[in-house]
Amino acid sequence: MSRIFDYNKEGRGVTLADVENESPIKRFFSEFFHRFWQLVLLNVLYLIACVPIITIGPATAALNYVCRNFTQGKPVSFFTDFVEKCKEHFKQGLVVGLIQVIAAVLCVSSFLMWTSASWNVGETIRTVAVIVIFLVGYLMFFGSFYLYPMMVSFDLTVKQLFRNSFILAMTQLWRNLVILAVAAVLLVLTFLLWPVSFPVFLFLFFSVLIFTANALIFPVLKRYVALPEEETSSDSDPEEVL
C-alpha cells in the first residue's frame, strides 16, 4: 500500500509566501475562525477601555492594531498589545477622537437645523446645505475606518491622517459599501433581536466590524500610503504617497 503521509520525511512547512498567495476570502475566514475567541475577548476589552469615554480614540487605535495583525496572520497578544498600543497612541488617539466627536455633533445639529420646518430658508439653499452635511458625515464616518489603521501602522501627523483618510474614503467606494453592509447587518440583528442580541453586541460587534475593515483596508494602505512599521528599517523614513 502506498503511503500518503510519510512522517519520517521532513515537510517543507508553511512559508510566508503560502500565506500571502492564499485567496483573500479564504484567508479572511481562516483567520476569523482561528481568532474567534480572541475576538470575543478583544471586544469585551475594547468596551471596558471605552468606559471613560475620553479613551475611545486610543482604545479604537489599539483595537485596529490587534485586528490588523489578526488579518495579516501575524503574532500578537490581544491583551498585552492592546494595552501597549493604548498607551503609545493615547495623545494622538485622544485628539483624533475629540475631533471626530465634535464633527459628529456639528453634523447632527446642523442636519436637524437645516431640515427643521421652522428654519425659514429657500429650498435650494436647504438642499445644498443638507448635501454638504451628508458629504462631511460620509467622509468622517468612512474615513475613520482608514484613519486608525494608519495611525497604528505609519508615522503620520493628525493632519496627514485626516487628509489620507478622506482621500481613501472618496476613492475606495466598494470597500466602503462592504464595511457598511457588515455594520448594517450587525446593527439590524442587534436591534431586531434585542435584548436577546445583547451578547452579540457585547462579545462580537466592534471586533468583527474592525476585523473586517482591516482585512479590506490594510492592503490598500500598504500600496498607497507608506511602508508598514514592521517593514521599515530604523535608518529610513516611511515613504508617504498620499
Describe this structure in words.
There is one protein chain. This protein is an all-alpha fold. It has one domain (23-228). It has helices at residues 16-21, 24-34, 36-49, 56-71, 80-88, 90-115, 123-153, 158-171, 173-192, 198-203, 205-224. α4 packs across α7.
How are the secondary structure elements laid out?
Layout: H1 16-21, H2 24-34, H3 36-49, H4 56-71, H5 80-88, H6 90-115, H7 123-153, H8 158-171, H9 173-192, H10 198-203, H11 205-224
Helix pairs in contact: 3-4, 3-11, 4-5, 4-6, 4-7, 4-11, 6-7, 7-8, 7-11, 9-11
Rg, nearest Å: 21 Å
Oligomer: single chain
Hey, roughly how much beta strand do the residues contain? under 5%
Q: Using DSSP, what is the number of strands? A: 0
Major sheet description: none
Rounded average pLDDT: 84
Helix content: over 70%
User: What's the domain count?
Assistant: 1
Structural class: mainly alpha
Number of helices: 11
Order of helices and strands: HHHHHHHHHHH
Poorly predicted regions are 1-15, 228-241
Distance between the termini: 60 Å
Q: How would you describe the shape?
A: globular
Could you give a quick summary of the protein structure above?
With 242 residues, this protein is mainly α. It is 71% helix and 0% strand.
Please tag this protein with its features.
242 residues; 11 helices; 0% strand; disordered C terminus
